[in-house]
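Please decode residue identities from the backbone states below.
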């Protein structure tokens, strides 16, 4: 039976970043993933500017830049077929420069990350699906599962880090996933060739029954992601997902103008139940990172930054655990507290934006407010891009400027419950 200091489940950005962090701290790390790389998955393929320093720290940024990826200068938002408002990322204090975001096909990003992990000396087990955990004195002390030949395997360790995403083994084993209240969301994505994008922005079009994100990913291709409420697909006439995807994309006039000369070059992929929360881990010896900790709606920015940053926070707590020889549930709960402190504002922003984009009158007025106040607009995009703290936006001062100024006459502002 193999034995390591730490076993990481999942070879996406969160799992690879965790493995690299712990490897650099001197720990013997193994990484297991059920897939054979390179592999693809549904993703916005948008890496916010705040991720650049983390990618550089883990030695991946230069490899990404070698692919000559698209660099986007901000986002362009259209509310219910209004003209797109292009908003650049704010100038960074100190450098005087405006940052840019990366737009990279996910199969390339994950393959680069995994190559860096292997080069660092981490033992990588591809096509190894973790199905259960090994326990010792009530704590997780290893993993077991099946490899590509259906042969069982087991690995002992002092700590397991589950970075297996929304279908993580931990979420299934301990029934940790909390589904969101109300309608679930479904995301559809596919690469297109020949899409006409006027400038280097990530284009967000908000209109019923949801919204889209369209961004160039290099080599003349664009990633086109559609997010809708689940009821939009199940209600009314029966449609297959590809027909539904194309119909909804083209019913928005501004969006259809961008796509009319383009052609989808791969099958449409989908993922259900986008947003979800996760209960606390019930035992010691186990931590969750990345999307396994819960997922917020992608309208607030691609989740890759959150995955990378959560891996850094986990690495700090794990290192402290090795120094004190303590991987108890109580000791590791410090990580959850730090995640809440760091990401709580972004989660709240997600809820606010979800309320806003499905409220057409206020969405239109907020866009007018942003168009007339570039400072407000750049602050919002700076938060979405993870280069400004969420507290810059999730504050009564900012929201009053953004929302109250849009009211007319004797109208009152019916705030969502989360703000009351």
């Amino acid at each position: 039976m193999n034995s390591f200091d730490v076993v990481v489940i999942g070879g996406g950005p969160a799992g690879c970043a965790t493995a690299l962090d712990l490897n650099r701290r001197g720990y013997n790390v193994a990484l297991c993933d059920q897939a054979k790389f390179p592999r693809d998955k549904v993703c916005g393929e948008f890496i916010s500017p705040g991720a650049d320093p983390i990618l550089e720290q883990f030695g991946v940024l230069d490899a990404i830049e070698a692919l000559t990826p698209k660099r986007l200068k901000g986002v362009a938002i259209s509310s219910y077929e209004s003209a797109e408002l292009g908003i650049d990322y704010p100038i960074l204090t100190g450098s005087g420069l405006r940052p840019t975001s990366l737009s990279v096909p996910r199969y390339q990003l994950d393959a680069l990350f995994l190559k860096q992990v292997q080069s660092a000396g981490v033992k990588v087990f591809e096509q190894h699906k973790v199905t259960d955990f090994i326990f010792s004195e009530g704590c997780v002390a290893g993993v077991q599962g099946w490899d590509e030949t259906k042969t069982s395997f087991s690995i002992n360790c002092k700590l397991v880090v589950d970075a297996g995403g929304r279908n993580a083994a931990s979420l299934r084993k301990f029934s940790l996933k909390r589904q969101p209240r109300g309608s679930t969301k479904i995301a559809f994505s596919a690469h297109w060739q020949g899409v006409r994008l006027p400038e280097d922005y990530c284009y967000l079009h908000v209109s019923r029954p949801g919204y889209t994100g369209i961004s160039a990913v290099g080599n003349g291709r664009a990633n086109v992601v559609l997010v809708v409420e689940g009821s939009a697909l199940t209600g009314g006439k029966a449609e297959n997902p590809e027909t539904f995807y194309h119909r909804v994309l083209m019913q928005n006039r501004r969006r259809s103008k961008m796509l009319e000369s383009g052609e989808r070059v791969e099958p449409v992929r989908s993922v259900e139940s986008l947003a979800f929360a996760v209960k606390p881990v019930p035992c010691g010896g186990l931590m969750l990172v990345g999307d396994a900790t819960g997922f917020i709606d992608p309208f607030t920015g691609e989740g890759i930054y959150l995955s990378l940053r959560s891996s850094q926070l986990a690495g700090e707590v794990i290192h402290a655990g090795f120094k004190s020889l303590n991987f108890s549930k109580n000791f590791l709960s410090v990580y959850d507290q730090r995640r809440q402190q760091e990401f709580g504002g972004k989660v709240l922003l997600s809820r606010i934006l979800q309320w806003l984009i499905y409220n057409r009158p206020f969405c239109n007025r907020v866009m007018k407010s942003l168009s007339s106040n570039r400072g407000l607009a750049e602050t919002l995009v700076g938060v979405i891009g993870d280069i400004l703290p969420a507290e810059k936006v999730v504050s009564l001062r900012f929201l009053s400027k953004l929302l109250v100024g849009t009211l007319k006459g004797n109208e009152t502002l019916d705030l969502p419950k989360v703000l009351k």
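Observation: Residues 55 and 174 are 32 Å apart (CA to CA).
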